[in-house]
Design goal:
Helices cover 36% and strands 5% of the residues. It has 443 residues and is mainly alpha-helical. The chain has a domain at 37-117 and 220-433: Orthogonal Bundle (Chloroperoxidase). Helix 7 (158-169) packs antiparallel against helix 8 (173-187) and helix 13 runs antiparallel to helix 14. Pfam families: Peroxidase_2.
Protein backbone atom coordinates (compact mmCIF):
# COMPACT_ATOMS: atom_id res chain seq x y z
CA UNK A 1 0.00 0.00 0.00
CA UNK A 2 1.24 3.46 -0.90
CA UNK A 3 0.39 6.30 1.46
CA UNK A 4 0.78 9.87 0.32
CA UNK A 5 2.18 11.87 3.20
CA UNK A 6 3.36 15.11 1.60
CA UNK A 7 -0.01 16.76 0.98
CA UNK A 8 -1.81 18.52 3.83
CA UNK A 9 -5.49 19.30 3.51
CA UNK A 10 -6.10 22.63 5.30
CA UNK A 11 -9.61 21.50 6.25
CA UNK A 12 -8.29 18.98 8.74
CA UNK A 13 -5.74 18.94 11.54
CA UNK A 14 -2.21 18.90 10.22
CA UNK A 15 0.23 16.40 11.73
CA UNK A 16 2.05 17.43 14.89
CA UNK A 17 5.80 16.90 14.68
CA UNK A 18 8.15 16.84 17.61
CA UNK A 19 10.46 19.78 16.99
CA UNK A 20 13.61 19.62 19.12
CA UNK A 21 14.59 23.21 18.43
CA UNK A 22 11.19 24.55 19.53
CA UNK A 23 10.83 22.22 22.49
CA UNK A 24 13.84 23.79 24.20
CA UNK A 25 11.86 27.01 24.44
CA UNK A 26 8.87 25.41 26.16
CA UNK A 27 7.60 27.06 29.30
CA UNK A 28 8.40 25.35 32.59
CA UNK A 29 5.59 23.02 33.69
CA UNK A 30 3.17 24.08 36.39
CA UNK A 31 3.06 22.39 39.77
CA UNK A 32 0.33 20.05 38.51
CA UNK A 33 2.37 19.33 35.39
CA UNK A 34 5.42 18.64 37.52
CA UNK A 35 3.39 16.13 39.52
CA UNK A 36 2.15 14.45 36.35
CA UNK A 37 5.70 14.40 34.99
CA UNK A 38 6.92 12.80 38.20
CA UNK A 39 4.21 10.15 37.91
CA UNK A 40 5.26 9.51 34.32
CA UNK A 41 8.90 9.14 35.28
CA UNK A 42 7.96 6.87 38.17
CA UNK A 43 5.90 4.67 35.88
CA UNK A 44 8.63 4.60 33.30
CA UNK A 45 11.44 3.90 35.75
CA UNK A 46 9.50 1.11 37.44
CA UNK A 47 9.57 -0.68 34.10
CA UNK A 48 13.13 0.32 33.27
CA UNK A 49 14.46 -0.97 36.59
CA UNK A 50 13.44 -4.46 35.58
CA UNK A 51 14.86 -4.04 32.08
CA UNK A 52 17.88 -1.68 32.18
CA UNK A 53 18.64 -2.14 28.49
CA UNK A 54 15.46 -0.25 27.63
CA UNK A 55 17.18 3.08 28.35
CA UNK A 56 19.73 2.49 25.62
CA UNK A 57 16.98 1.33 23.29
CA UNK A 58 14.96 4.51 23.87
CA UNK A 59 17.93 6.76 23.21
CA UNK A 60 18.82 4.94 20.01
CA UNK A 61 15.41 4.74 18.39
CA UNK A 62 14.39 7.18 15.66
CA UNK A 63 11.25 9.31 15.77
CA UNK A 64 9.08 11.23 13.31
CA UNK A 65 5.58 11.76 11.99
CA UNK A 66 3.79 13.07 8.92
CA UNK A 67 0.46 12.84 7.18
CA UNK A 68 -2.30 14.41 5.09
CA UNK A 69 -6.04 14.60 5.36
CA UNK A 70 -9.60 14.53 4.09
CA UNK A 71 -13.08 12.95 4.18
CA UNK A 72 -16.65 13.55 5.26
CA UNK A 73 -19.00 12.41 8.00
CA UNK A 74 -22.07 13.26 10.04
CA UNK A 75 -23.06 16.87 9.38
CA UNK A 76 -23.37 17.50 13.14
CA UNK A 77 -20.01 16.00 13.97
CA UNK A 78 -17.96 16.21 10.78
CA UNK A 79 -14.30 16.95 11.21
CA UNK A 80 -14.21 19.03 8.02
CA UNK A 81 -13.30 22.69 8.44
CA UNK A 82 -12.03 22.13 11.97
CA UNK A 83 -8.53 23.41 12.63
CA UNK A 84 -6.84 21.94 15.67
CA UNK A 85 -5.22 24.25 18.21
CA UNK A 86 -1.59 23.51 19.10
CA UNK A 87 -1.01 20.72 21.60
CA UNK A 88 0.45 21.88 24.92
CA UNK A 89 3.69 19.96 25.30
CA UNK A 90 6.20 19.37 28.10
CA UNK A 91 9.37 18.72 26.12
CA UNK A 92 11.25 16.32 28.41
CA UNK A 93 8.21 14.11 28.96
CA UNK A 94 7.39 14.19 25.24
CA UNK A 95 10.74 12.50 24.54
CA UNK A 96 9.70 9.58 26.73
CA UNK A 97 6.25 9.45 25.15
CA UNK A 98 7.57 9.50 21.59
CA UNK A 99 10.04 6.68 22.29
CA UNK A 100 7.47 4.19 23.54
CA UNK A 101 6.85 0.99 21.59
CA UNK A 102 3.32 -0.17 20.87
CA UNK A 103 3.67 -2.19 24.10
CA UNK A 104 4.47 0.87 26.19
CA UNK A 105 7.79 2.14 27.56
CA UNK A 106 9.25 -1.37 27.39
CA UNK A 107 9.12 -3.91 24.57
CA UNK A 108 6.75 -6.86 24.67
CA UNK A 109 8.01 -10.34 25.49
CA UNK A 110 9.79 -12.19 22.66
CA UNK A 111 7.46 -13.21 19.85
CA UNK A 112 5.82 -16.63 20.11
CA UNK A 113 3.67 -17.42 17.09
CA UNK A 114 1.84 -20.29 18.77
CA UNK A 115 0.84 -18.21 21.76
CA UNK A 116 0.03 -15.00 19.92
CA UNK A 117 -1.81 -16.23 16.84
CA UNK A 118 -5.50 -15.28 16.92
CA UNK A 119 -7.65 -17.68 14.95
CA UNK A 120 -10.16 -16.30 12.45
CA UNK A 121 -11.25 -19.72 11.15
CA UNK A 122 -13.55 -22.50 12.31
CA UNK A 123 -15.61 -21.45 15.32
CA UNK A 124 -13.76 -18.12 15.26
CA UNK A 125 -14.56 -17.35 11.63
CA UNK A 126 -15.96 -13.91 10.95
CA UNK A 127 -19.73 -13.71 10.85
CA UNK A 128 -21.58 -10.39 10.60
CA UNK A 129 -24.21 -9.75 13.28
CA UNK A 130 -27.70 -11.03 12.70
CA UNK A 131 -30.86 -8.96 12.94
CA UNK A 132 -31.25 -9.56 16.68
CA UNK A 133 -27.55 -9.25 17.57
CA UNK A 134 -26.26 -6.15 19.37
CA UNK A 135 -23.19 -4.12 18.53
CA UNK A 136 -22.01 -0.82 20.02
CA UNK A 137 -19.39 1.93 20.10
CA UNK A 138 -16.30 -0.19 20.85
CA UNK A 139 -14.70 -1.70 17.73
CA UNK A 140 -12.63 -4.17 19.76
CA UNK A 141 -15.72 -5.59 21.47
CA UNK A 142 -17.64 -5.69 18.20
CA UNK A 143 -14.80 -7.55 16.46
CA UNK A 144 -14.52 -10.03 19.35
CA UNK A 145 -18.26 -10.75 19.08
CA UNK A 146 -18.12 -11.06 15.28
CA UNK A 147 -15.47 -13.78 15.68
CA UNK A 148 -17.05 -15.58 18.61
CA UNK A 149 -14.55 -14.60 21.30
CA UNK A 150 -17.53 -12.95 22.97
CA UNK A 151 -21.10 -14.08 22.45
CA UNK A 152 -22.18 -13.26 18.93
CA UNK A 153 -25.41 -11.89 20.37
CA UNK A 154 -23.50 -8.94 21.86
CA UNK A 155 -24.72 -9.84 25.36
CA UNK A 156 -22.02 -11.37 27.50
CA UNK A 157 -21.05 -12.35 31.05
CA UNK A 158 -18.19 -11.53 33.39
CA UNK A 159 -16.51 -14.91 32.91
CA UNK A 160 -16.83 -14.78 29.12
CA UNK A 161 -15.49 -11.21 29.07
CA UNK A 162 -12.36 -12.21 30.98
CA UNK A 163 -11.66 -15.35 28.92
CA UNK A 164 -12.67 -13.95 25.54
CA UNK A 165 -10.76 -10.68 25.74
CA UNK A 166 -7.63 -12.43 26.95
CA UNK A 167 -7.82 -14.93 24.09
CA UNK A 168 -8.40 -12.24 21.47
CA UNK A 169 -6.25 -9.38 22.79
CA UNK A 170 -4.27 -10.52 25.88
CA UNK A 171 -6.25 -8.13 28.06
CA UNK A 172 -5.33 -8.87 31.66
CA UNK A 173 -8.16 -9.91 34.03
CA UNK A 174 -7.35 -6.95 36.30
CA UNK A 175 -8.57 -4.76 33.42
CA UNK A 176 -11.40 -6.86 31.96
CA UNK A 177 -12.97 -8.02 35.23
CA UNK A 178 -13.70 -4.60 36.81
CA UNK A 179 -14.89 -3.22 33.47
CA UNK A 180 -17.32 -6.15 33.13
CA UNK A 181 -18.53 -5.72 36.73
CA UNK A 182 -19.21 -2.02 36.13
CA UNK A 183 -21.05 -2.78 32.88
CA UNK A 184 -23.22 -5.41 34.57
CA UNK A 185 -24.06 -3.54 37.76
CA UNK A 186 -24.42 -0.03 36.39
CA UNK A 187 -25.67 -0.41 32.80
CA UNK A 188 -26.65 -4.05 32.36
CA UNK A 189 -28.59 -6.89 33.91
CA UNK A 190 -27.33 -7.49 37.46
CA UNK A 191 -30.04 -10.10 38.07
CA UNK A 192 -28.92 -12.22 35.12
CA UNK A 193 -25.29 -11.10 35.48
CA UNK A 194 -25.07 -9.98 31.85
CA UNK A 195 -24.08 -6.82 30.02
CA UNK A 196 -24.54 -5.47 26.51
CA UNK A 197 -21.71 -4.24 24.28
CA UNK A 198 -24.24 -1.90 22.68
CA UNK A 199 -27.77 -0.84 23.63
CA UNK A 200 -30.43 -2.33 25.91
CA UNK A 201 -30.83 -6.09 26.39
CA UNK A 202 -34.25 -7.15 25.12
CA UNK A 203 -36.76 -8.13 27.76
CA UNK A 204 -34.77 -6.73 30.69
CA UNK A 205 -36.34 -4.06 32.89
CA UNK A 206 -34.16 -2.66 35.65
CA UNK A 207 -34.93 0.79 37.10
CA UNK A 208 -31.49 0.99 38.72
CA UNK A 209 -29.29 0.33 35.69
CA UNK A 210 -31.96 1.35 33.14
CA UNK A 211 -30.48 -1.54 31.12
CA UNK A 212 -28.85 1.09 28.95
CA UNK A 213 -25.91 -0.94 27.67
CA UNK A 214 -22.58 0.82 27.23
CA UNK A 215 -23.89 2.79 24.24
CA UNK A 216 -26.00 4.92 26.58
CA UNK A 217 -23.75 4.96 29.65
CA UNK A 218 -22.94 8.60 29.00
CA UNK A 219 -20.37 10.21 31.34
CA UNK A 220 -20.32 7.01 33.38
CA UNK A 221 -18.64 4.57 30.99
CA UNK A 222 -18.97 6.05 27.52
CA UNK A 223 -17.63 9.61 27.30
CA UNK A 224 -17.25 12.67 25.12
CA UNK A 225 -14.10 13.08 23.03
CA UNK A 226 -14.12 9.74 21.20
CA UNK A 227 -11.68 9.19 18.37
CA UNK A 228 -14.31 8.17 15.80
CA UNK A 229 -17.70 8.68 17.48
CA UNK A 230 -19.52 11.93 18.19
CA UNK A 231 -20.44 13.31 21.59
CA UNK A 232 -23.89 12.08 22.59
CA UNK A 233 -25.36 15.56 23.29
CA UNK A 234 -24.40 16.72 19.79
CA UNK A 235 -26.20 13.87 18.01
CA UNK A 236 -29.28 13.37 20.20
CA UNK A 237 -27.74 10.50 22.13
CA UNK A 238 -25.98 8.67 19.29
CA UNK A 239 -22.44 8.07 20.53
CA UNK A 240 -22.18 4.66 18.83
CA UNK A 241 -22.19 5.53 15.10
CA UNK A 242 -18.80 6.09 13.49
CA UNK A 243 -18.18 9.50 11.87
CA UNK A 244 -16.12 8.85 8.76
CA UNK A 245 -14.40 12.25 8.68
CA UNK A 246 -13.16 11.78 12.25
CA UNK A 247 -11.73 8.38 11.32
CA UNK A 248 -10.14 9.84 8.19
CA UNK A 249 -8.42 12.57 10.19
CA UNK A 250 -6.78 10.04 12.49
CA UNK A 251 -6.08 7.63 9.63
CA UNK A 252 -3.93 10.07 7.68
CA UNK A 253 -2.74 12.63 10.22
CA UNK A 254 -1.55 10.38 13.05
CA UNK A 255 0.74 8.21 10.93
CA UNK A 256 4.28 7.96 12.26
CA UNK A 257 7.19 7.24 9.96
CA UNK A 258 9.38 4.28 10.81
CA UNK A 259 6.73 2.34 12.71
CA UNK A 260 5.95 -0.37 10.17
CA UNK A 261 6.28 -4.15 10.21
CA UNK A 262 10.06 -3.80 10.24
CA UNK A 263 11.20 -1.18 12.78
CA UNK A 264 12.59 1.92 11.11
CA UNK A 265 10.51 1.46 7.95
CA UNK A 266 6.98 2.16 6.80
CA UNK A 267 4.20 4.02 8.58
CA UNK A 268 1.95 3.17 11.49
CA UNK A 269 0.23 4.51 14.58
CA UNK A 270 1.71 4.82 18.05
CA UNK A 271 0.78 5.47 21.66
CA UNK A 272 2.29 8.92 21.29
CA UNK A 273 0.42 9.89 18.13
CA UNK A 274 -2.87 8.65 19.59
CA UNK A 275 -2.28 10.53 22.86
CA UNK A 276 -2.12 13.73 20.79
CA UNK A 277 -5.15 12.59 18.81
CA UNK A 278 -7.15 12.49 22.04
CA UNK A 279 -6.18 16.09 22.76
CA UNK A 280 -7.40 17.12 19.31
CA UNK A 281 -10.70 15.26 19.62
CA UNK A 282 -11.43 16.55 23.14
CA UNK A 283 -10.56 20.09 22.03
CA UNK A 284 -13.20 19.66 19.31
CA UNK A 285 -15.71 18.65 21.97
CA UNK A 286 -14.99 21.72 24.07
CA UNK A 287 -15.55 23.99 21.07
CA UNK A 288 -18.67 22.20 19.73
CA UNK A 289 -20.47 20.54 22.65
CA UNK A 290 -21.95 22.93 25.25
CA UNK A 291 -22.55 19.95 27.58
CA UNK A 292 -19.03 18.56 27.29
CA UNK A 293 -17.97 16.71 30.44
CA UNK A 294 -14.80 14.86 31.29
CA UNK A 295 -15.94 12.95 34.37
CA UNK A 296 -13.39 11.31 36.70
CA UNK A 297 -13.83 7.73 35.46
CA UNK A 298 -15.40 8.02 32.01
CA UNK A 299 -13.43 11.14 31.01
CA UNK A 300 -10.15 11.30 32.90
CA UNK A 301 -9.50 7.55 32.71
CA UNK A 302 -11.64 5.70 30.15
CA UNK A 303 -11.70 8.29 27.33
CA UNK A 304 -7.92 8.66 26.88
CA UNK A 305 -7.15 5.04 27.72
CA UNK A 306 -9.54 3.96 24.95
CA UNK A 307 -7.10 5.53 22.46
CA UNK A 308 -4.28 3.58 24.11
CA UNK A 309 -6.37 0.39 23.95
CA UNK A 310 -6.39 0.66 20.15
CA UNK A 311 -2.60 0.59 20.01
CA UNK A 312 -2.14 -2.05 22.71
CA UNK A 313 -4.87 -4.41 21.51
CA UNK A 314 -4.97 -3.95 17.74
CA UNK A 315 -1.26 -3.85 16.88
CA UNK A 316 0.04 -6.82 14.92
CA UNK A 317 3.13 -8.57 16.33
CA UNK A 318 5.85 -10.53 14.58
CA UNK A 319 9.36 -11.90 14.94
CA UNK A 320 10.69 -8.75 13.27
CA UNK A 321 8.60 -6.44 15.45
CA UNK A 322 7.65 -8.24 18.71
CA UNK A 323 6.35 -5.03 20.29
CA UNK A 324 3.91 -4.66 17.43
CA UNK A 325 2.82 -2.11 14.86
CA UNK A 326 -0.60 -0.84 13.85
CA UNK A 327 -0.81 -0.39 10.10
CA UNK A 328 -3.50 1.61 8.27
CA UNK A 329 -4.90 -1.63 6.84
CA UNK A 330 -5.32 -3.25 10.24
CA UNK A 331 -6.77 -0.04 11.66
CA UNK A 332 -9.41 -0.03 8.91
CA UNK A 333 -10.30 -3.69 9.49
CA UNK A 334 -10.94 -3.23 13.20
CA UNK A 335 -13.06 -0.14 12.56
CA UNK A 336 -15.18 -1.68 9.76
CA UNK A 337 -13.92 0.76 7.14
CA UNK A 338 -13.77 -0.09 3.43
CA UNK A 339 -12.58 1.91 0.44
CA UNK A 340 -9.47 3.99 -0.05
CA UNK A 341 -8.64 7.33 1.48
CA UNK A 342 -10.38 9.75 1.23
CA UNK A 343 -13.36 7.75 -0.09
CA UNK A 344 -14.03 5.67 3.00
CA UNK A 345 -17.24 3.85 3.89
CA UNK A 346 -18.25 2.69 7.36
CA UNK A 347 -19.88 -0.74 7.44
CA UNK A 348 -21.83 -0.77 10.73
CA UNK A 349 -21.26 -3.81 12.91
CA UNK A 350 -18.74 -5.43 10.55
CA UNK A 351 -15.56 -4.96 12.58
CA UNK A 352 -13.07 -7.75 11.86
CA UNK A 353 -9.94 -9.24 13.36
CA UNK A 354 -7.58 -9.47 10.35
CA UNK A 355 -6.43 -12.85 9.09
CA UNK A 356 -2.88 -13.82 10.01
CA UNK A 357 -2.92 -11.44 12.94
CA UNK A 358 -0.91 -11.92 16.14
CA UNK A 359 -1.82 -10.23 19.44
CA UNK A 360 0.57 -9.20 22.22
CA UNK A 361 2.21 -11.95 24.25
CA UNK A 362 0.47 -13.74 27.11
CA UNK A 363 3.66 -13.04 29.09
CA UNK A 364 3.08 -9.27 28.79
CA UNK A 365 -0.71 -8.84 28.89
CA UNK A 366 -2.13 -5.35 29.08
CA UNK A 367 -2.75 -4.80 32.78
CA UNK A 368 -3.48 -1.97 35.21
CA UNK A 369 0.19 -0.95 35.67
CA UNK A 370 0.56 -0.72 31.89
CA UNK A 371 -2.61 1.38 31.59
CA UNK A 372 -1.39 3.68 34.38
CA UNK A 373 1.95 4.01 32.61
CA UNK A 374 0.24 4.97 29.35
CA UNK A 375 -1.98 7.57 31.00
CA UNK A 376 0.68 9.12 33.20
CA UNK A 377 3.33 9.35 30.47
CA UNK A 378 0.84 10.86 28.01
CA UNK A 379 -0.44 13.24 30.68
CA UNK A 380 3.06 14.40 31.52
CA UNK A 381 3.92 15.00 27.87
CA UNK A 382 0.59 16.52 26.84
CA UNK A 383 -1.20 17.91 29.94
CA UNK A 384 -4.52 18.26 28.12
CA UNK A 385 -4.63 14.49 27.57
CA UNK A 386 -5.74 14.20 31.20
CA UNK A 387 -8.91 16.23 31.61
CA UNK A 388 -11.23 16.65 34.57
CA UNK A 389 -13.85 19.34 34.06
CA UNK A 390 -16.63 20.53 31.79
CA UNK A 391 -18.32 23.26 29.77
CA UNK A 392 -20.95 25.17 31.73
CA UNK A 393 -23.71 24.95 29.12
CA UNK A 394 -22.02 26.93 26.35
CA UNK A 395 -19.18 25.99 24.06
CA UNK A 396 -15.64 27.09 24.95
CA UNK A 397 -16.50 27.58 28.62
CA UNK A 398 -14.39 24.68 29.84
CA UNK A 399 -13.29 24.87 33.47
CA UNK A 400 -10.55 22.42 34.35
CA UNK A 401 -10.05 20.63 37.64
CA UNK A 402 -6.96 18.81 38.85
CA UNK A 403 -6.89 15.21 37.53
CA UNK A 404 -3.89 14.22 39.67
CA UNK A 405 -5.95 12.65 42.52
CA UNK A 406 -7.93 10.67 39.94
CA UNK A 407 -4.72 9.33 38.41
CA UNK A 408 -3.40 8.47 41.87
CA UNK A 409 -6.61 6.52 42.61
CA UNK A 410 -6.17 4.68 39.31
CA UNK A 411 -2.56 3.84 40.16
CA UNK A 412 -3.67 2.29 43.45
CA UNK A 413 -6.89 0.48 42.50
CA UNK A 414 -6.97 0.47 38.69
CA UNK A 415 -10.38 0.40 37.01
CA UNK A 416 -11.93 -0.73 40.30
CA UNK A 417 -11.17 2.60 42.00
CA UNK A 418 -13.71 4.88 43.64
CA UNK A 419 -13.74 7.68 41.10
CA UNK A 420 -17.13 9.15 41.98
CA UNK A 421 -15.55 10.87 44.98
CA UNK A 422 -13.89 13.27 42.54
CA UNK A 423 -17.00 14.04 40.46
CA UNK A 424 -18.18 17.67 40.20
CA UNK A 425 -21.89 18.19 40.76
CA UNK A 426 -24.56 18.96 38.17
CA UNK A 427 -24.51 22.66 39.04
CA UNK A 428 -20.88 22.82 38.03
CA UNK A 429 -21.33 20.52 35.04
CA UNK A 430 -24.76 20.73 33.35
CA UNK A 431 -23.72 17.84 31.10
CA UNK A 432 -23.93 15.47 34.07
CA UNK A 433 -27.72 15.67 33.86
CA UNK A 434 -27.74 14.55 30.22
CA UNK A 435 -28.86 10.92 30.22
CA UNK A 436 -29.61 9.54 26.75
CA UNK A 437 -31.54 6.30 26.46
CA UNK A 438 -32.00 4.96 22.96
CA UNK A 439 -32.71 1.84 20.94
CA UNK A 440 -30.68 -1.34 20.67
CA UNK A 441 -28.20 -1.09 17.80
CA UNK A 442 -29.11 -3.74 15.25
CA UNK A 443 -27.04 -4.12 12.10
Amino acid sequence: MSIEVKHKDPLLCSPVKFDQSRSSQAKPPTTTSNMKYSLALAAFLSYATAYPSVLEDLVARDRGSSGSSGSSGSSKCAWNNYKCPPVKTVAAAAVISAKRTNCGPLPCAPFNATDQYVSTTGKYAYKPPGKSDIRGPCPGLNAAANHGYLSRTGVTTQAETIAGLFAAYAMSPDVSEPLAIIAINQFGDPVGQRWSIGGPIRGVVNPVTQNSGISYSHNNYESDGSQTRCDAPVTNGDAHSLVVSRFADTYINRLVKGRGAVPGTGYGYTLDSFAKDYVFKSDWSISHNPLYVSAPFAGTIVAPVAYQFIINFMSNHSEANPSGWLSPEVYKSFFAISGNYPNFKWNPGQERIPDNWYRRSSLTPYDNPAAFSDLSIAGAAYPDSLRLGCNNGKVNTYVAGDPTPVLAEFQTLGFAGNFKQFAPGNQQCPGNAYNPIGPTQNY
